[in-house]
Amino acid sequence: MADVAHIVGRKKSSRSPRGKDPLPIGERNKAENLMLLCSEHHNKIIDNGKLLPQFPKELLLRYKQVHEDRIRFATSFGPERETVVICMVGNIRKDATSISKEEIRKAVWDNGRYPRYFIAENNIKIDLTGLPESNEKLYWDCGKAKIDEVIEREIFPAIKREKIEHLSVFALARIPFIIYLGYRLGDKVATDIYQKHRDGDEGWTWRKDTDIFQFKSKLLQEKDRNSGVALILSLSGKIELKDLPAYINNDFNVYEIIPEGVEPNRSLVASEITLGAFRTVYQKLLREIESSHKGVTEIHLFPAIQVSTAVACGRELLKDITPPLCVYDKIGDEYKFALEVK
């Protein structure tokens, strides 16, 4: 049950809560002076004479305004603002990761959408935490198979039936898996990608008032056009040529993408604009590699990147045009081949 409570009491009397306020009697029964409350808060707080100094008219009006603004915002969303959330989690350095519903809800709502699965309890989740870590090849193969299974069973059929028209992607797992997820999702449907922040509140909401960064690509090592191609992504940390496996370092064309005007760092990608800037440079470089190295059958990718840029890396691949990616993962002090994206 709910009570209709008066902010300024109905009677112009000291016995009526805030009754001596100059608000005219004729205005006191209007919606602007009313709040919908539970009985407990109505009787014990709003109308409690001992607590009147703690709940002045101005404070209650502010509470009312904040609540009404939130409701107006929520009810302004039409069906076109609905999104289906994909949440992928896995172990990182043998520790399981998780993303709470509240973190997802806040990030999606702040981005002007509402998540369908919080209403229908139809959470599309890809859980990679139980993979067999004792065998590296089996580990990566099983992870890819799990991603394939969920996408083929829950996502692609729904897209085909037009039950999914927008996706929101939250991923916290090993970077090669996230790149593969982005590739499998592709560009079949409009998608928002989210980033786990490593400073401040450490949430997933894209920041509006933050530094925007640009990126550039460069050729670190040039060989024959038909020699192998390696691509270094130095975004969250710097990867040096000496860090690559010896066979890559000796006889490959090696490209790199780095941020402009700032050192690579984990907090680099805090806004969608920065993510978009990376995607533009990455996409352009892929097209250049496809054009300049037509005889190359694969690109060796060495990523030191954030989760959002990892999703973007996979989504920007053009099936049957971009050579397959051989994605490496840093294990200890060396980069080892993890999985192929094709």
Can you offer a commentary on this structure?
By secondary structure, the protein is of the alpha/beta class. The protein has three domains: 73 residues, no CATH class; 115 residues, Rossmann fold (3-Layer(aba) Sandwich), CATH 3.40.50; 127 residues, Rossmann fold (3-Layer(aba) Sandwich). Helix content is 33%, strand content 24%. It is built from nine helices and 14 strands. The strands form three sheets. Strands 3, 4, 5, 6, 7 and 8 form a six-stranded mixed sheet that branches. The protein has a six-stranded mixed sheet with strand order 9-11-10-12-13-14. It has a two-stranded antiparallel sheet with strand order 1-2. The model has no long low-confidence stretch (mean pLDDT 91).
What structural class do the secondary elements suggest? alpha/beta
Q: What value does the average pLDDT take?
A: 91
CATH topology of the largest domain: Rossmann fold
Distance between the termini: 58 Å
Number of domains: 3
How would you describe the shape? elongated
Radius of gyration: 27 Å
